[in-house]
Write the structure tokens for this entry.
Amino acid sequence: MAAYSRIRSIGLFGLRALGLLAMSGVALAHPGHEIANNLFLSGLAHPLTGFDHLFAMLAVGLWSALTYSSVRKAVWTPVSFLCLLLIGAFFGLSGVSLPATEPMIIVSLFILGLLIATRLSMPIWAGAALVGFFALFHGLAHGSELSAPGSVIAFVAGFMLTTFALHLVGLAAGFALKKRDLRLTRVAGVGIVVYGVSLLTMAA
């Protein structure tokens, strides 16, 4: 219970911080993911400037909390996402590219939305591997979009910090909702699926 309370408190703090970032994000970044002069602030705002990244990162924490019975088990999936996100970001910064990066980001929304809507469970290693696979593509997209000169470490640190906060918000929401009406999480999951499908339709 103590661990859950800490996750919930940190998640609520993260939600308030994300709200402040979202309000300042208009001045820091634009829909095209352009980079502002302050790379750390740009990195902080970057995951909030596109719903594809935002929903995916929230969904990882939400699904983990809904699926696994304890905080100790639930954190492995977000940790996997963060690690592979970081690796993907440095791949992107190095000029490495993978085919269908943007379509895979959209697919991640579709899959994560389905997992939330159905509350489908799987072994911890399988869940970590699945979200880690998708995180690699999210990281590639983040890294490849950095074109402004300056300290890339500051930019990476910024979007990793926001991603961590989004995971915490998702975890807090998941633990709060897991014993309540299933319709709440189903609506959230279906909403993410619909958004993913809409992106696929626009990309087609």
Remarks:
- Residues 2-28 form the longest helix (27 residues).
